[in-house]
Specification:
- It contains five helices and no strands.
- It has 99 residues and is mostly helical.
- α1 crosses α2 and α4 runs antiparallel to α5.
- The mean pLDDT is 87.
């Protein structure tokens, strides 16, 4: 979903239609793409740069197990409720999005 949304936005940009979009919404993996977009001010005018950063990150090094465990500890102590979803998110998702 992350790569799919990114590909759609790139094609809309190439077709000159990206500036016609008023709202962008998503669920699940597409929100990972949106989070990367929103890190960059004026992302719609710098879409190629954002795309390159996302691709570089996805091809980058894995998050170490030590860093994953540290993140889990941070979540555990910072939340009132801690569940297996938190464990899954940190251990599984970081393998894909590399952060």
């Amino acid at each position: 979903a992350m790569v799919g949304l990114l590909g759609s936005l790139v094609q809309l940009n190439k077709a000159g239609l990206l500036d016609c979009i008023l709202y962008l919404s998503g669920v699940s993996g597409s929100t990972w793409c949106m989070a990367s977009l929103y890190k960059e001010p004026d992302w719609s005018t710098k879409l190629e740069t954002v795309k390159d950063k996302i691709i570089e990150r996805l091809n980058g090094p894995e998050v170490s197990l030590t860093d994953k465990l540290e993140k889990l500890k941070k979540y555990y102590y910072g939340k009132k409720f801690f569940s297996l979803t938190d464990v899954w998110a940190v251990l599984f998702i970081t393998s894909y999005v590399k952060e």
